[in-house]
């Protein structure tokens, strides 16, 4: 009866066929699971697309964090995608929500003051009112930042920033890595040393302090020394990795947001020929004075400065700009720095403007200097625009268009063309007061051409081919290891300079992420990444390893006397922090050292046999026949 109800030959055949197939399938599944034993996955965003040190650093982060059970997926992207994710309104979202988890970032500083420190690290500085996109909310740090900004006594001030450094080390919003040395290769037709000499430095000083290029660009055009291109036109050509996100000074938030000499500031930065320190140079303000208590600052403006449409620049422009930044509805990233410092501002007459400060502030002049925040916008064009619409106004986002062909600035160059994705073009404006005040009355350069080249390797090829004269410093940092050999191979056309950029590179943490909000996880990451290898092997020594709590580099005027040490590369310590965060290693074997155990194969065979028997039984019943 059983033989009539069951086909044994079909069953045995099915078992022989199905068992090895299923065993192999089980084995692959179990081995794959064995090799993917991570606690969790983080997404690393890197704003570079080409090969080079940035790519290699990102991959090292991935490899290092795998050793403590953290899987990292790396996303290389152009800055046009990076900024909206990290700096924009998605700053408080995780990668899966359209934001970010961890990122390779940097903050740059002026070497003499604490400008932007409130906006970058204070809890009130989260976007859009600052650059604290980490979401760091630390009471100890907030207090140290406030006291450091307002304290006049230098010794006491350093103590506050020492407190800040140690709090960054104890509760890190980012892992400080290094301070970059930038080998900078420039086409010889742009004579940096000659430009430095024109500014009052000696040729030797120019060689020693080539960061004068920062002061030889944009509003420092009167000191430029530039050979003409074939045809006689003096055009300075620069490669940038991304287009500017903002044109108005009150909204500038990154190194891509160059002012290009479009609009002037009250004062600006310069270099003291004797001390080589950064100083403040009279610009739209021909002079200024502080009250005895340090809480009132009076600026006296030039009478010969005007906007590029001929309208005079007056104290009313200054008052309108400052009050606009102080309005939270404007959403200016300068809000945190301004609101904590300025009580009010008033115009006494057309050329006299008075700032009333909440407290004596040693770095106040830095607030009104430079393009970020300090570059004035034309009140007579923008005063009727609601403050919450200024960020999206065409003067901030579009530049000259067919509908608005005349972009009105006040600096040495007039913005005449922006072909999105390709280039921006600026031409010298004869009506600028500075040509006469600092030179012989005529422009030293005819045109600036900014070429948008997102791929760093393509930008470097353009420099070698003589298609651009210099690169944006973001590109210089991305291709730093290649620059010395490139300069050597083009001795007739390219010149190599070196300087330590006043900046800190770091791995930023999104503290809105439910995993990264755990301080112990962040500390584990900080001890799991080999910074020494990044600096010495990937960057070929072109950087200074940073203190673990560093904001700015050791040569900064406000660098504390007793900073925290650099982050120690210590996998065992990193694992201890992971355990403290609640992750237990008895349930996890690091993937790179875990052999495939024999049990995997045993389970695979047994599983395959069980499935084979089941399939065989079904086959025997379905194929039964009468005997």
Number of helices: 23
| Rounded mean pLDDT score | 83
CATH superfamily of the largest domain, by name, is Periplasmic binding protein-like II
The CATH topology assignment of the largest domain is D-Maltodextrin-Binding Protein, domain 2
**Count of the separate structural domains:** 3
The percentage of residues in β strands lies in 15-25%
Shape: globular
- Per DSSP E runs of 2 or more residues, the count of β-strands stands at 18
What's the helical proportion of residues? 25-40%
Main sheet record:
7 strands, mixed
Would you kindly provide a written description of the structure presented here, covering whatever features stand out?
The protein is an alpha+beta fold and 627 residues long. The chain folds into three domains: 2-35 and 594-622, no CATH class; 40-179 and 506-583, Dipeptide-binding Protein, domain 3 (Roll), CATH 3.10.105; 191-225 and 242-452, Periplasmic binding protein-like II (D-Maltodextrin-Binding Protein, domain 2). It is 34% helix and 18% strand. The protein is built from 23 helices and 18 strands. The strands form four sheets. Strands 1, 2, 3, 4, 16, 17 and 18 form a seven-stranded mixed beta sheet that branches. A five-stranded mixed beta sheet has the order 12-13-14-5-15. Strands 8-9-11-10 form a four-stranded antiparallel beta sheet, with helices on one face. Helix 6 runs antiparallel to helix 7 (154-170). Residues 28-35, 201-218 and 589-601 have low confidence and may be disordered.
């Amino acid at each position: 009866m059983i033989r009539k109800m069951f086909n044994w030959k079909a069953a045995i055949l099915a078992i022989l066929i199905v068992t090895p197939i299923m065993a192999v399938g089980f084995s692959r599944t179990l081995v794959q699971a064995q090799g993917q034993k991570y606690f969790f996955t983080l997404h690393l965003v890197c704003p570079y697309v080409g090969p080079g040190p940035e790519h290699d650093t990102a991959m090292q982060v991935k490899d290092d964090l795998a050793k403590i059970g953290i899987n990292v997926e790396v996303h290389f992207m152009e800055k046009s995608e990076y900024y909206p994710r990290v700096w924009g309104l998605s700053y408080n979202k995780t990668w899966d929500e359209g934001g970010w988890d961890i990122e390779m970032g940097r903050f740059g500083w002026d070497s003499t003051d604490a400008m932007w420190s409130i906006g970058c690290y204070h809890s009130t500085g989260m976007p859009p009112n600052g650059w604290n996109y980490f979401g760091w909310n630390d009471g100890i740090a907030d207090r140290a930042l406030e006291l450091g900004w307002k304290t006049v006594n230098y010794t006491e001030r350093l103590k506050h920033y020492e407190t800040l450094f140690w709090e960054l080390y104890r509760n890190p919003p980012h892992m400080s890595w290094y301070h970059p040395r930038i080998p900078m290769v420039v086409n010889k037709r742009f004579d940096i040393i000659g430009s430095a000499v024109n500014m009052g430095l000696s040729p030797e000083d120019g060689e020693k302090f080539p960061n004068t290029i920062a002061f030889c660009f944009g509003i420092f055009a009167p000191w430029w020394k530039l050979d003409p291109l074939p045809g006689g036109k003096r055009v300075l050509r620069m490669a940038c990795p991304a287009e500017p996100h903002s044109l108005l000074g009150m909204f500038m938030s990154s190194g891509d947001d160059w002012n290009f000499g479009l609009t002037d500031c009250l004062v600006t930065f310069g270099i003291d020929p004797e001390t080589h320190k950064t100083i403040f140079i009279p610009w739209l303000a021909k002079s200024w004075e502080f009250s005895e208590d340090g809480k009132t600052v009076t600026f006296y403006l030039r009478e010969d400065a005007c906007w590029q449409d001929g309208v005079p620049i007056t104290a009313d422009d200054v008052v309108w700009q400052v009050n606009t930044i102080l309005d939270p509805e404007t959403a200016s990233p300068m809000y945190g720095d301004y609101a904590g410092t300025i009580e009010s501002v008033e115009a006494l007459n057309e050329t006299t403007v008075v700032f009333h400060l909440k407290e004596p502030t040693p770095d106040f002049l830095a607030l009104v200097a430079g393009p970020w925040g300090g570059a004035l916008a034309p009140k007579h064009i923008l005063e009727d625009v609601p403050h919450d619409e200024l960020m999206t106004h065409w003067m901030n986002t579009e530049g000259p268009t067919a509908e608005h062909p005349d972009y009105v600035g006040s600096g040495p160059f007039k913005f005449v063309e922006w072909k999105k994705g390709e280039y921006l073009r600026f031409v010298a404006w004869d009506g600028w007061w500075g040509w006469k005040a600092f030179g012989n009355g005529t422009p030293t350069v005819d045109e600036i051409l900014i070429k948008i080249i997102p791929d760093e390797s393509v930008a470097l090829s353009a420099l070698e081919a003589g298609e651009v004269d210099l690169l944006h410093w973001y590109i210089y940092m991305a291709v730093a290891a290649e620059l010395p050999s490139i300069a050597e191979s083009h001795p007739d056309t390219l010149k190599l300079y070196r300087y330590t950029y006043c900046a800190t590179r770091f791995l930023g943490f999104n503290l809105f992420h439910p995993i990264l909000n755990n301080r112990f996880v962040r500390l584990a990451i900080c001890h799991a990444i080999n910074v020494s290898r990044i600096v010495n092997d990937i960057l070929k020594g072109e950087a200074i390893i940073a203190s673990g709590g560093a904001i700015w580099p050791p040569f900064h005027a406000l660098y504390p006397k007793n900073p925290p040490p650099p982050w120690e590369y210590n996998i065992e310590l990193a694992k201890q922090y992971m355990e403290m965060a609640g992750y237990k290693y008895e349930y996890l074997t690091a993937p790179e050292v875990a052999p495939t155990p024999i049990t995997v194969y045993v389970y695979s065979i047994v599983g395959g046999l069980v499935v084979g028997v089941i399939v065989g039984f079904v086959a025997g019943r379905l194929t039964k026949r009468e005997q």
